[in-house]
């Protein structure tokens, strides 16, 4: 089960020396809990940072949908819920990082701050613990978007 959310493109205007380029990114979001997906989308918003704009969201409720979407390509950042039932985001992250060439950067949502070691085991690029802090979620997504843009 997936749900796509397109954002109307906004003209960012020309890049000037005082104004950095805007990184337009697409985000794939996995959680079996719709309230968690809503919380992540609300925290990141359309602009998680001045220089990062989310132009497309794809919400997935199953690990199969995530794998299928990543195989199709076109995703700049992946957010996985480590607390998802049946297939947790931590194990899924490790699987994706080991199996997908040039896997996009991954943010995992852990159950608590002490689970940072699990995020490291999963090969995640960033981790944010529950309860979700909107500022940390937005900063993590923006940082991963910048990393992906720099690598391209």
TrEMBL record:
Is Chaperone given among the entry's keywords?
Answer: no
Q: Which PROSITE patterns does the entry mention?
A: RESPONSE_REGULATORY (PS50110)
All copies of the Response regulatory domain together span 26-145
Does the keyword section mention Manganese?
no
At which residues is 4-aspartylphosphate found? Answer: 81
Q: What is this protein called?
A: Transcriptional regulator
Question: According to the lineage, what is the superkingdom?
Answer: Bacteria
